[in-house]
Amino acid sequence: MATLFKDVLILDGSREKAERVHMLVSKGRIAEIIDASQNPPSADKIISGHGKLAVIPGFVNAHTHAAMVLLRGLGEEAPLMEWLQNKIWPVEDKLTPEHIYWGTLSAMLEMLSTGTTCFADMYFEMERVAEAVLGAGMRAALCRGITAGEPGKIERSLQNNLDLAEKYHGREGLITVQLGPHAPYTVPFESMKNIASAAKSHGLGIHFHFLETEGELQNLPMPPKEYLQSSGLLNAPYLTLAHAVWLDPNIELPDNVTLIHNPCSNLKLGSGVMPLVSWLDNSVPVALGTDGASSNNRLDMWEEMRTTALLHKGVNKDPVCVSALDVLRMATYEGARAYGFSQKGMLQEGWFADLVLVNLDKPHYIGVNEENLAAYLVYAGSSADVEGTMINGRWLYKNGEYPTLDCEEIMQKSREAREAITK
Ligand code: NI
Predict the structure, then answer these.
(1) How far is the CA of 418 from the centre of ligand 1 (A)?
(2) In Å, how far are 232, 251, 288, 318, 323 from 273, measured between CA atoms?
């Protein structure tokens, strides 16, 4: 079935400004984009924008722990280590595979309604997460969070992560799998070397928390660059470093590294502010993520875009250091590219139709045009403007409904899971 977006404004991270076009989606891809002054192509379904609808690429939430929505609100306003050790880890011990399945679906409801089409998830019981993702038709980059514990735990978790890759990497074009060593403080250096070498030999990327807090930097057994190099992490096909708040931007990083900026989580946990502008000046790619819902507490990429753009202008006392277009690109294309998803994250002919329909027919969009759409979206817009979220040419969220998901059941099962883990 072909869907025509007739007379809409389109914008992505590769364009200097929005364009008023007709865009045809067919067989899961963007088939045609032509100027709105031309005759529109025919289609089975027509969405008429009259210039009052915008289409942007779907957001890629490049670092989260989806099922942590079940832990939202637990241990608020505590430092990272105290929060993890006293509030989060004891409750996580009670999570069953079923809890994680329903929690992930609940997070997906939230993400879809706010325009996210793909998320990078680090957690456990990831087979259940993969089933939730495939069942809904969403995209995800999945890794098993590998942490030390009782003897043999790391080895078992690594094997579990490799099994996940074997079974799900590339499935239906919706899933990529990475290895997920949790962090330097939860994985001993020797084990990190084993994980890095497994990533290289299996051709898998690595998704890793790195230098979220200052204490983590102080406790690192060697300087950060040396750590990344001698562990072999840099030898993986690609490496995404979540947070990197305390990583010195003067360090040279190879092309296969993407930093994942999680400004809201870093602010809420008082971890500090990543030197984003220096990284961008050094042409190091940066994508955006929310982190888990218990440290953010939203899974809303609009919030991350706005916070990123405002925060760094303020910190640098420079209103031009990060543009609205920069953050839009970081929230879409950069995340897709970082996790091995090709032809996603831009609105280009032939690329996958992963996109968000935004309603501009609202008071706060009065004055919007092709030149200023990016700034309107980032500074005035919010997820409340999302009319629809499409993945592979299929609506997963449209006018408040989820065509592929049973919202009532997911919410009820999630309530039950929350009760079970907190009683
Ligand atoms: Ni995290």
Answers:
(1) 20
(2) 27, 17, 14, 15, 17
CATH architecture of 3-57+351-398: Roll (2.30)
212 Cα: distance to centroid of ligand 1 (angstroms): 9
Q: Which two tokens stand for residue 68?
A: 């942590």
- The pLDDT assigned to 76 comes to 84
**pLDDT at 77 (0 to 100):** 81
What pLDDT is attached to residue 75?
82
pTM of the shown model:
0.97
Parallel/antiparallel/unpaired status of strands 19-26 and 3-10: antiparallel
* Sheet order of strands, 257-261 included: 59-64, 116-123, 139-146, 175-181, 205-210, 239-243, 257-261, 286-288
Per-domain boundaries in the chain: 3-57+351-398, 59-338
Give the distance (Å) from ligand 1 centre to CA of residue 218: 19
Beta strands 239-243 and 205-210 are parallel
Residue 63 CA to ligand 1 center (angstroms) comes to: 6
DSSP alpha helix (H) spans, 114-242: 126-136, 153-168, 189-202, 214-219, 224-230
The whole-angstrom separation of Cα 306 and Cα 300 is 11
In DSSP terms, which residues pair with 48 in a beta bridge? Answer: 6
* Of 241, 267, 269, 291, residue with least CA distance to 107: 291
CB-based contact 393:25 (threshold 8 Å) = yes
Express each pLDDT in 7-58 by its tens digit.
Answer: 999 999 999 999 999 999 999 999 999 999 999 999 999 999 999 999 999 9
Q: Separation of 234 CA from ligand 1 center, angstroms?
A: 20
CATH code given to domain 59-338? 3.20.20.140
Contact between 354 and 55 under an 8 Å Cβ cutoff? The reply is no
pLDDT band at 134 (very low <50, low <70, confident <90, very high): very high
Which helix (H) or strand (E) element contains residue 100? helix 97-113
